[in-house]
# Entry
Amino acid sequence: MSLNAKDKSTVKALWDKISPKSDEIGAEALGRMLTVYPQTKTYFSHWADLSPGSAPVKKHGKTIMGAVGDAVGKMNDLIGGLGALSELHAFKLRVDPANFKILAHNIIVVIAMYFPGDFTPEVQVSVDKFFQNLAYALSDKYR
Amino acid sequence: MVEWTEFERSTIADIFSKLNYDVAGSNALARCLVVYPWTQRYFGKFGNLYNAAAIMGNPMVAAHGTVVLHGLDKAVKNMDDIKATYAELSVLHSEKLHVDPDNFKLLADCLTIVVASQMGSAFTPQVQAALQKFLAVVVSSLGRQYH
# Structure
């Protein structure tokens, strides 16, 4: 389900609106993922505190959204642009790619919470496709 | 049988008591048809679904959204045996409507988004977990009679 011109401009416009809150969105989304999908906690056993709002969750939420913002700028070639990140997830972190969908769902829930007026169904379909393509690019180097 | 905590029971009752069924139902179904356009396959008789604006404004979609949400009421009122409560509806969706059960999850996700947008910060991670657990049980029960 590839990104057309309308998807890309929709995602860029939404990102411009939400990026000032991106750290908060990332922290919220990650905290929710760990709470609502407890199996995802298995990847973070090295953290002292996995609760929403904790320091490692906030820090990592910020890292994740930084990468999402980077991907917004690379929509014309996500596979090429995210090669290094894909290798990291494939060979070092070894995150099961099924989890990318789970995190994307939680980011979308948080965007809907914070920006209900902006997150219309039309915006949602482009954003959903964007995360799907991002996940695909992130899993590119796995095997 | 699914085990529900007191928090989960009261959270589900609370969410549904505050929901405007017409608004939430039509929004969730319309959103599903826009975000996952292949779901439109089940609504050939609903007239104009050609673009998002048409879908959002379609009165048949709105009416059906309300029907679906009232269907959820049965589960809210029978949380201790959702599986039995939905046996007939599951047969209907399988034998008569021929709905791919994967679609139930898509609609459940859209309803989650609609509730999240309405509740804002009151939609805490714990509330989200309760709602998603409830919807997962509903989805599973609706798929139970397929064979």
Chain A has one domain: 5-139.
